[in-house]
Amino acid sequence: MAGKQSSEVKRRTASTRKTTTTRKSSAGKKRNTSGKSANTKVSRMQVSEYTEPVGDEIKLIIILAVSILILLSVFGLGGRVGDKAAYLFFGLFGFVAYALPFLLFIGSAFHISNRGSRLARIKLTAATVFLIMIMALMALADSSFDGTASVLDGFLNSAAAHNGGGLIGFSLSWVLFNAFGRAGSTVILVCLMLVSGVLITGKRIFIRLGTLIGHMMTDMGQHFNAWREKRARERLARMEAKAAEEDSLPEDEAYENIDEETVSIQPKKKAANIIIPSRKKENVKSKDPAPASSSETVLQTYTEESATSAETAVISDDSKQPSLDSFDQGQSVQPLHIQIPEFMTGHVSGKSSVKAPSASISDIMSNLSRDIPSEAESEPETETVEDKKPKGKPVIARTILSPDDLELEIEGLPEETPVNTDDTFIDISKILSEIPETTGNINTEVADMQPEDVSPAAQAEQQTAVSPTAARTSSPSHHTTAKGTVEDTASGSDEPLEIVEEEIEKYEFPPLDLLDQGKGSGNQQTAASLKQTALKLQQTFESFGVGVQVTNVSCGPAVTRYELQPDQGVKVSRIVSLSDDIKLNLAVADIRIEAPIPGKAAVGIEVPNTHKEMVHLRDLLESDKCKQAKSKLAFAVGKDIGGQTVVADIEKMPHLLIAGATGSGKSVCINTIIMSILFRADPNEVKMIMIDPKVVELNVYNGLPHLLIPVVTDPKKAAGSLNWAVNTMMDRYNKFAEIGAKDLKSYNARVENLPYESEQHKKMPQIIIIIDELADLMMVAQSEVEDAICRLAQLARAAGIHLIIATQRPSVNVITGLIKANVPSRIAFSVSSGVDSRTILDMNGAEKLLGNGDMLFYPQGLQKPVRVQGAFVSENEIARVTDFIRAHLTSQPVYSETIKKSIETAAISSPSGASGSDKDVYFEEAGRFIIEKDKASIGMLQRVYKIGFNRAARIMDQLCEAGVVGPEIGTKPRQIKMTMEEFETYLNGNQ
Ligand SMILES: Nc1ncnc2c1ncn2[C@@H]1O[C@H](COP(=O)(O)OP(=O)(O)OP(=O)(O)O)[C@@H](O)[C@H]1O
């Protein structure tokens, strides 16, 4: 037995050895013929490339033939075999057997052409389920079906009658019927049918239905509104006809018939409105008959024709001039509202009408202003006014701009002021000129205005409207001192302020070699790697049955864009839906699809580069594009996807919103803007206000002559700075109006050509207001900040004031609708979600950015944002440049005390803040400590009081404000300016 076993083992060992030898020799052979086998592989691949499509074609031909045979069979034309087959098909599928040949062919063709696609498999499965549900429903539809017959009966009945659900449908309905009854089974089957229908079509039936209903409701609403408007117009037409009729009646009778909705002037009430809603001439009169003593017109109205003719503009009889006695002191005043339809705004003025119907309100207002006779021109009238010197203050309380009307509210007209609006056009200039100038005021204050009542544009327009008079009256309140500064003797922070720094005699432009140069490594992407990625992209799309051709490749510093041209019939949405699969196949973190590229018949796929190139500011500033840019506010944005330098002009933007997640590159972007300006603009040409609630970002610019005031770090003061800017804007408009200039450029040009030296009219610089974190300001005084930003954004462009606002919180309560609407140019850096991207750009895309200066640049006028790799400037470079500028100043910049004071006043008057009362609890201690140590450093305060950086910096600012320490100058330590005794006196004085 043992011997048998051992001989068996030997035999096995021998056979194993033999096999090993055979394997070894075959491996050797393989090694020897490795070259050959590679060749064989290639040729096999070529063969398979050839045979695969041909094989598919043959398969389809066979399936077509089978389908036709089945078709013939089910219609009884298939001979004996066909009859048998038809019996089987009807038995199995019931009525659906008629559709079987078609379904078989279409299904097979679909499967073959979408081989490998998961989606196609899902669709095919869903289609099969759909068919089975139909079969089951057909079985259920048979009224004789009661769930008692056997499954075989189901087969036989369908085979014989060529209807019903066949064996398959019958079996399923049998199970469902016995479990849920007929109704329950129907619900389940229909539900499954719908689900498979959704999977087959990919359409969201119910959501669409909801949307459809929504659209229908909106349409109905619109129809309803149109109907209401039509009715209102008809009513108005009726009223006009009625009014025309009444014209022919004696006056007293006519008054009784005036419709209250059209006109209401109620002397006893606070306000009254005249609404002139149509272009047609109409007679609108006071509801109350005017008292006999004051029956003359204060408001004059003109027909369209008369508005264009200066001569025919005067309606009232000279002998019936309005009595100015009515402005006497003690007389009660009434506000008067005039609403002027928008179409009239081009023709408001009587004497020098603005002809263009699309003329802007400010144009009209400036025209109006010019119509008001100056003191010299209107001497005889002035005399009359002097005689009857009124004490009341007529006030243009507010203007309201609605989409249709401009409304002026004039307070201070006497109670019984009669209004005769005979014609369509009201001469506001006349009203303004008749308000006595000797009172020294057409009060432009909007003190009692409710913010919600008055749009910022309207406030600004209102102030613009009265500007010349205001300027006339306010100018004597300033007198020039020997130093050339203007002392503001007028009280109140709303007085127009002037930029009063001494002019910087000579500004030494910093040389570009203070900046680092790019290494000039160029793009690391080789042509081969680009070609490979392009091929991969094409193959990926092909594997999903989407035909595309890569037509172009643009290689940018951080991303490369592959331009794809889809084949005929390929939907763009299909390409977009494959973005995840592309990411997977290319093994990249994220891609952005631009579908389509604006102005091109191509879809752009932006793939991050493996090696990112840094775009150095110096390289951009040295580029021709930058050198050729004429504007002082031109700045280097970065390089676009094609590697081209992108240069933008803040003047044209005219305001810019920069938003992105923390660390995405906002501060670097702001620094590049500031640096671009420092390299291009003289401080006498461009000034900046920097608001940096984060404290650390912009303080390096302190001490530069370009700054109007030191960098503002206190959010409460920031609101004050914005208010100051609004006042400056209004002041500038007044000055423009005085010499008939339209904007800053024409003003400066005219001032330059003035034949005499004027103290009043000097060249003015452009002003850029940079806010590094809007969210911090909005937290402190949202309504004030929003209001000021909107007023500036709407009107500041012509005044040469531009806003650059950055925020890392792109939420709707920071970037409010109002701010968004008024700041048209945007830069979006990387954000965390599509929602944030939509808040900034009104579209997705920023969530796909890569960070580190990768941005979507969307200036005003561009259809779609462009992807740009932002310029980079390091802190060292900034320090080098700012140190250079400071070192080469002929005189230290003198910051305007007036501006500072005004900003502080505004901060104090701000309801949300009181700069004096909210000193930090460590303020006193920190002051004493710093004086004792003779060293002021934020880090030291942090360490000693164990507080955060922001709080320590704020305490330092408060100490600086109190005069304990000097301002921060670059990286140098602050000066200690008070002794301990002085500080104690200060503290005692402030308790
Ligand atoms: N254009 C750029 N090129 C290369 N790297 C950049 C660029 N911009 C920013 N970075 C990198 O990103 C870092 C963060 O940038 P930055 O400080 O500007 O972000 P931020 O958005 O201002 O962040 P935070 O809101 O927190 O202040 C920089 O230190 C730098 O390394």
TrEMBL record:
Residues binding ATP: 660-667
Biased composition (Low complexity): 16-25, 303-313
Primary location: membrane
Gene3D superfamilies: 3.30.980.40, P-loop containing nucleotide triphosphate hydrolases, Winged helix-like DNA-binding domain superfamily/Winged helix DNA-binding domain
SUPFAM superfamilies associated with the record: P-loop containing nucleoside triphosphate hydrolases, Winged helix' DNA-binding domain
Alphabetized CDD domains for the sequence: TrwB_TraG_TraD_VirD4
Alphabetical list of Pfam families matching this protein: FtsK_4TM, FtsK_alpha, FtsK_gamma, FtsK_SpoIIIE
Record's signal peptide: none
Membrane topology: Multi-pass membrane protein
Keyword Disulfide bond: no
Region of interest: Disordered: 1-42, 280-331, 370-394, 452-494
Location in or out of the cell: Cell membrane
Record keywords, A-Z: ATP-binding, Cell cycle, Cell division, Cell membrane, Chromosome partition, DNA-binding, Membrane, Nucleotide-binding, Transmembrane, Transmembrane helix
Positions of the FtsK domain: 643-838
Ranges annotated as biased composition (Acidic residues): 374-384
Transmembrane segments: 60-79, 85-110, 122-141, 161-180, 187-207
Recorded family membership: Belongs to the FtsK/SpoIIIE/SftA family.
Subunit organization: Homohexamer. Forms a ring that surrounds DNA.
Protein name: DNA translocase FtsK
Organism this protein belongs to: Coprococcus intestinihominis
Taxonomy of the source species: Bacteria, Bacillati, Bacillota, Clostridia, Lachnospirales
